[in-house]
């Protein structure tokens, strides 16, 4: 048995998995993908059917066909090519990314948490909302549109209390600026309504809440945490905006919500998922989204949940969802 962790050197979450695997005395290799071309060599010999990673720094080689389980986290590629032009760097980056894509295909017979294809499919928030509605989750009233009249009507129908959120990750990256767009309450007026025509916006009804629920699903196990977002003003709309540590407590989900969470991960072919809910003032669990590759280490650290142990057990036993 050989377990492969695909990530980068700064990924703290994978450190938790490394610790758990080491304590369980399980065989594994951590592939920090930005080291490919530096301390890590790839040799894909198609004539002889040998597909090998060689870690020069550790004097270690891995036959990719021997890998039985994969934990996929945060791969990155080396971009420190100061002796190359911008065009040449872009070319090398593209080549490295496509080699990694080929590597993932070579590992298709292994057990994954989660496969790249499943992650990319599950990340689509349009698809998430359709599936969540089919399963029977309660959802905020939602619309994605670039039609100004429809956006305005939605806004008015929800008593001018709506939030706006990114359709994808919210990451803003450029040569002159970078940052993250969080979920915010929005005011639609004559000054900004026409801007909607340029790009579809994702609007939802504002829901008054007791707090936020982060539910981490590993295989068939559920780890639910109440994030007390309403105790700090800046985190009341989006708990990620808090500059202060927020109080977390363990929470037991109702049986029907647990069942729906497991249905959702199975429909999305996920062995891991981080599902976000609002717990509204009436005690209803309102589905927001699922992150198929979400963070969980801070939950384990704060609440002493054994998430890393559950993931390593899943990798070792190669159990499918």
Can you tell me about this structure?
There is one protein chain. Helix 1 packs across helix 8. The strands form five sheets. The chain has a five-stranded antiparallel beta sheet, sandwiched between helices. A four-stranded parallel beta sheet has the order 2-1-6-7, covered by helices on one side. The chain has a four-stranded antiparallel beta sheet with strand order 8-13-9-12, with helices on one face. The protein contains eight helices and 18 strands. The mean pLDDT is 92. The radius of gyration is 22 Å and the shape is globular. It has three domains: 3-113, Rossmann fold (3-Layer(aba) Sandwich); 120-125 and 209-317, ATP-grasp fold, B domain (D-amino Acid Aminotransferase, Chain A, domain 1, 2-Layer Sandwich); 141-205, Dna Ligase, domain 1, CATH 3.30.1490. The protein is of the alpha+beta class and 321 residues long. It starts with a strand and ends with a helix.
What spatial order of strands do you see in the largest sheet?
Answer: 16-15-14-17-18
Give me the number of helical elements.
Answer: 8
Order of helices and strands: EHEEEEEHEHHEHEEEEEEEEHEEHH
CATH homologous superfamily label of the largest domain: ATP-grasp fold, B domain
Structural class: alpha+beta
CATH architecture of the largest domain: 2-Layer Sandwich
Q: What percent of the residues sit in helical stretches (DSSP H or I)?
A: 25-40%
Subunit arrangement of the protein? single chain
Over all CA atoms, what is the radius of gyration? 22 Å
Morphology:
globular
Spans of 5+ residues with little confidence (pLDDT < 50)? none
Strand proportion, as a percent range, falls in 25-35%
N-to-C CA distance = 20 Å
The tally of strands reads 18
CATH topology of the largest domain: D-amino Acid Aminotransferase, Chain A, domain 1
Structural domain tally: 3
The chain-level mean pLDDT equals 92
**What profile does the largest beta sheet have?**
5 strands, antiparallel
- CATH classification class of the largest domain: Alpha Beta
